[in-house]
Amino acid sequence: MSDFRTDIGRVAETFGSPRTAIGNGWGWIMAYGVVSILVGLAAFIWPFAATYAATLVIGALLFVSGVFSIAAGLFGRGHEGRFYAVAFGVLTVIVGAVMVFEPVTGALSLTLLVTVWLLMRGLLEIVLGFRMRRRRGWMIALGAINILLAAFILATVPWSALTLPGFILGVSFMMGGATAIATASDHRKGAEAFGAIA
Known about the structure:
Pfam families: DUF308 (PF03729). The chain is mainly α.
């Protein structure tokens, strides 16, 4: 029995205990932060292109999702939600097609979607910020900025719908990247990732 415990101890020393392995993987967090900042800069420099690209991508995803929903309703026999699946699929295909073929109209819809996304993200970040041990102020500030950005979008729609989503996404990605880089720096020194309270 003692030999077995000795072997287990050697294995633990070889692979490292969870405590000593806490700093592992900080480079991935750092890489995410750097890439996020670069994406944010690109969106900020070319806001129209960012808005246009996001509109096309989201429209294409909606279109494909709608096609699969229609197929599920037509061929998925024996379930009570067939009519809903077909109706929802048709609606989704129409919305997706509008965003792909009429990106200006889709940009207005995308502006509202970005507003909701920023608002929800900001609220979640503020809640998480109050639960963190380190970088609490960073996360709370990030959440507050995202909520203010959402309010700014609502105040400027529809005139800035073609460029504002690009600017907003750019600022949000850059702030998120800066926060991730700071977190990676802490994690590299042995702090738990994001410092969340269990």
